[in-house]
Specification:
This protein has 386 residues and is an all-alpha fold. The protein is 71% helix and 3% strand. It has a three-stranded antiparallel beta sheet. α11 packs parallel to α12 (273-281) and α14 (310-334) crosses α15. The two termini are 37 Å apart.
Length: 386
Amino acid sequence: MVRLFNYLKGDKVIWMVVLLLSIISVLVVYSSSNALAQKFKGGNTEAYLIKHAGLIALGFLLMYFVHKINYKYLSRVSQIAYIISIPLLLFTLLRGVSAGEANRWLEIPGIGLTFQTSDFAKLALIVYVARVLTLKQDQLGDIKVIFRSLLLPIGIICSLIFPANFSTAALIFVTCLLIMFVGRVPLKFILGIVGACLVGAILFGTIIWYKPEIIKRGPTWKARIENFIKGDAQSNYQSEQAKIAVAKGGAFGVGPGNSTQKNFLPQSASDFVFAIIIEEYGSIIVLLLLFLYMILFFRSIRIMRNTEKTFGGLLAVGLSFSLVFQALINMAVAVNLFPVTGQPLPLISMGGTSIWFTCVTIGIIISVSKEADDNQSGKEDIAELA
C-alpha cells in the first residue's frame, strides 16, 4: 500500500479518503443490492458486486489519469465543454431516457450506456465559472459583467436542468454562488442575487402549489412537499422504510449484511444507501462518513490557500463543495430531514457514470493539490535557506 501511494502525486490524504469511501461503497452495495439481485439476477448478488467494483476500479483509473493532467489546460477546455453541455441538456430534456417521471438520462448510441448529462454540465459549469472569475478579477465590481459573464451562463445551465431535476439545478446554483463569493464577487451583488432568487422561488412555488399542471413535474413536486409535510407512512413509503432502517441500526448496527430494510427500500443501493449503512453499521458510521467528507472539503480549502493560482483555488473549493453538499443532501433525505430528491451519495451509491464523474472531479482537485504541494515545498526550502 505504501509503495502504491508513492506513485500517486498530490494530496495523499484525499487519496486515502477516496479509498476508504470506495471500500465502504463496495461493502454496502454488495449487501443492499440483494433485492435487485432477487428481481433481476435470480439472487446472484455477486453480479452486482463485480459490476460495482469494476465501475469503481475504472473510476480510480480515470482519477489517476486526470490527476496527471495539468489542471490549467481545463480553463480553455471548459469553454468547449460548456457549449457542448447546452445541446446535450436540451436533447436530454426533449428525447432523453425517462427516470422518475423526467428525462434525465442520455443513451450513447451503439453501446447502450446511459449517463446523466447534468453530471457533465455541472462539472463543465463549475470549471467555466472558475475560469471567468479568474480572468475578470478586475471587473467584478461591474454588475453588467457579473450578469453577462456569470449569471447568464449559470442561468442557462440551471434552467435546462431544472424541469427534470430540481435538486441538481439548486445544488449547481448554490455551488456557483459559493465560488463567486470565494472569487471576490462583492457581497452586495451575491445578496441581491439570493434575494431575487428567493422572491422568484416564492412566486414560482405559489404558482406550482395552486396550478401544478402548468409544468410537467409540477404535480410530482407538489405531492412530494405535501407528503413530506403530512408525514404519513402510506404517502412517504421510502422515507418511512428509511426511518425504520435508521431506528433498527441504533448506535452499533445489526451487522454487515444483516439489513432487512434493503428488501423494502426500492433505492436501497443508490439514493437510500445511507439508511442501509446506518442499519448495518450503526450511527457511529455516520460520524466516520461526515468526518471523511469534511476532510475532503477542508483539505481542498488548504489546497486553495497553498496554491498561487486563483483558478486552481476556485476549482478545488468549488468542486469539493459540490460533492460534500450533495452528500449532506443525500444524508438529510435518508433521515427524513428533506423531501426525496434523488441525489446519490458521492463515491458510495451504486451507479456508473455518476461514480466516474465524481472520480474525475476528485482527480481535478488532486491535480491542483500537486501544484499547491510544490509551492509549499518551495516556501519551506526558502525558509530553510534563510
